[in-house]
Amino acid sequence: MMGTAGKSSRARSIDAKRVFDVMATSLGLLLSAPLMAAIAVAIRAGGDGPVLFRQQRVGRGGVLFRIRKFRTMRSDLPGALVSPTGDPRVTGVGAVLRRSKLDELPQLLDVLQGRMSLVGPRPEVPAYVALWPEDKRRVILSVRPGITDPATVLLRYEADQLAAAVDPEAFYREYLLPRKVEMYVHYVENRSFSGDLRILFSTVRALVERTAEERPAGIHMP
Question: Residue 1 domain-assigned?
Answer without folding.
Answer: no
